[in-house]
UniProtKB/TrEMBL annotation:
Belongs to the peptidase M10A family. Matrix metalloproteinases (MMPs) subfamily. Residues 153-320 form the Peptidase metallopeptidase domain. Residues 1-29 form the signal peptide. It comes from Setaria italica (Foxtail millet). The gene is LOC101755272. Ca(2+) 2 binds at residue 210. This is Peptidase metallopeptidase domain-containing protein. SUPFAM superfamilies: Metalloproteases ('zincins'), catalytic domain (SSF55486), PGBD-like (SSF47090). Keywords: Calcium, Glycoprotein, Hydrolase, Metal-binding, Metalloprotease, Protease, Signal, Zinc, Zymogen.
Length: 368
C-alpha cells in the first residue's frame, strides 16, 4: 500500500497530540530514542550550549569543549584547571566514560545525545567524584542493588548524638516567608527521621544549630558559586560541617503543586531539601534513578519519598527506626524514575509510539 501524497487530517491530529504529549510529559534521558534525547532540557540553563557538542569525540577540536571540561572538573571527573583547551583529549574521553558509568549510560567516551541530555539536567552542586573517588555507587555495588554511597571516609554525626538542630539563617535573597520555609524544611527532615534514630528540631539561633540553611546568589564565599536558574540548584557539606545552601536565583515552589506552576523553570523546594539533607547526614550520590540521592531532577517535578536505596544507606550509618513502615511498594507515576531527568533503562513503549506517529507524519515506515 502506498502513502497518499497529502497528509490526512487524522494523521495531523495524531502528530499534534504526540508532540503535545512530548512537551508536557516528564523526560528521562535514557528512556528517549536517540533522535529525541536533546528534548530532555529545552529550557535554557548554564549548560544548554552542550547541545552543540553532540557527537564530539576523541581527537576533535571544537568550541565549547573547554566549558565541558570545566563542568566535569566541577563535579570531580577532571582535575581543576584555569587553562582548559577545546581539544577533545584522552583525559576528557576517560572522564566522560566515568560519568556515563555513574549515570547508567552507554559507556562510549563520546558526547552522544543521551550523555548531552543528562549533562544539561539541573542538579545538585555536590561533586560525584571527590578526591578521585566516585561517590556514586554504580561501580561499587553489583547487580544494580545498593547503589547508595558515602563521602570518602564515611563521615557521619556521632552515634551518641540522636538530636540535631537546624536554623534557617539567610532568607533575604528569597521571597518565601519564614513560616512557609519552616514547614517545608520540617517535612524534609521528617522524611529522614522517620527511617532512622535521628530527630531534628528547628532553632532560632544559628550559633546553637548543628545545621544552617540559607539562600544565596552567585559567589557566596564557600568556593562553590551558584550559576543561575536550572544549573546547580543547591549544595550541602558532609558531616559534621552542617552548611546547606540553596541558589536564590531558582524559581522555588514551596507550596502547592509544582507540576502546575506557571513557570517552566519552577523547582520544588522540598524535593531539593530532602536530597541535600541526605548529604548533611553523610550520604553521597546514588546511581539509582529512583533514589532521592540521585544527582539530578527536572523542573516542575516533585520527588520527596525515600527509596529503598536511600533507606538502606542511611540506616547503615545511623540504625533504623523501629516504627518505620518501609518505602511504598509502588512508585507514583509523578515521581521517582518517571520524573527524573536521567533515569536509566530501556526505551519505553510510549516513546516507540511517539516515534511511529512522527515517522508516519513524515511519510516514513518504522518497524517497531
Amino acid at each position: 500500500m502506498t502513502m497518499a501524497s497529502t497528509t490526512s487530517p487524522l494523521l495531523v491530529l495524531l502528530s499534534a497530540m504526540a508532540v503535545a504529549a512530548l512537551v508536557a510529559a516528564p523526560v528521562s534521558s535514557a528512556d528517549l530514542p536517540s533522535t529525541f534525547a536533546d528534548i530532555a532540557s529545552k529550557i535554557p540553563n548554564p549548560w544548554s550550549a552542550f547541545r552543540n557538542l553532540t557527537g564530539c569525540h576523541f581527537g576533535e577540536e571544537q568550541q565549547g569543549v573547554a566549558k565541558l571540561k570545566d563542568y566535569l572538573a566541577h563535579f570531580g571527573y577532571l582535575p581543576e584547571s584555569s587553562g582548559f583547551t577545546d581539544i577533545f583529549d584522552a583525559d576528557l574521553e576517560e572522564a566522560i566514560k566515568v560519568y556515563q558509568r555513574n549515570f547508567g549510560l552507554n559507556i562510549t567516551g563520546v558526547m552522544d545525545a543521551t550523555t548531552v541530555a543528562q549533562m544539561m539536567a539541573p542538579r545538585c552542586g555536590v561533586a560525584d567524584v571527590i578526591n578521585g573517588t566516585s561517590t556514586m555507587g554504580a561501580s561499587s555495588h553489583a547487580h544494580g542493588r545498593n547503589l547508595y554511597s558515602y563521602f570518602p571516609g564515611s563521615p557521619s554525626w556521632p552515634r551518641s548524638k540522636k538530636r540535631l538542630t537546624y536554623a534557617i539563617t539567610d532568607t533575604a535573597a528569597t521571597t518565601i516567608d519564614r513560616a512557609t520555609l519552616s514547614r517545608v524544611f520540617a517535612r524534609a527532615f521528617a522524611r529522614w527521621s522517620a527511617a532512622t534514630t535521628l530527630n531534628f528540631t528547628e532553632t532560632a539561633s544559628a550559633r546553637d544549630a548543628d545545621i544552617t540553611i540559607g539562600f544565596h546568589a552567585g559567589d557566596h564565599g564557600d568556593g562553590e558559586a551558584f550559576d543561575g536558574p536550572l544549573g546547580t540548584l543547591a549544595h550541602a557539606f558532609s558531616p559534621t560541617d552542617g552548611r546547606f545552601h540553596l541558589d536564590a536565583a531558582e524559581a522555588w515552589v514551596a507550596a502547592g503543586d509544582v507540576s502546575r506552576a506557571s513557570s517552566d523553570v519552577a523547582v520544588d523546594l522540598e524535593s531539593v531539601a530532602v536530597h541535600e539533607i541526605g548529604h548533611l547526614l553523610g550520604l553521597g550520590h546514588s546511581s539509582e534513578p529512583g533514589a532521592i540521592m540521585y544527582p539530578t531532577i527536572t523542573s516542575r517535578t516533585r520527588k520527596v519519598d525515600l527509596a529503598s536505596d536511600d533507606v538502606v544507606g542511611i540506616q547503615s550509618l545511623y540504625g533504623g527506626n523501629p516504627n518505620f513502615k518501609g518505602v511504598p511498594t509502588t512508585t507514583p507515576a509523578t515521581s521517582s524514575r518517571d520524573m527524573d531527568s536521567g533515569a536509566a533503562g530501556a526505551r519505553s513503549r510510549p516513546w516507540d509510539a511517539l516515534v511511529a506517529v512522527l515517522a508516519a507524519a513524515a511519510g516514513l515506515v518504522v518497524a517497531l
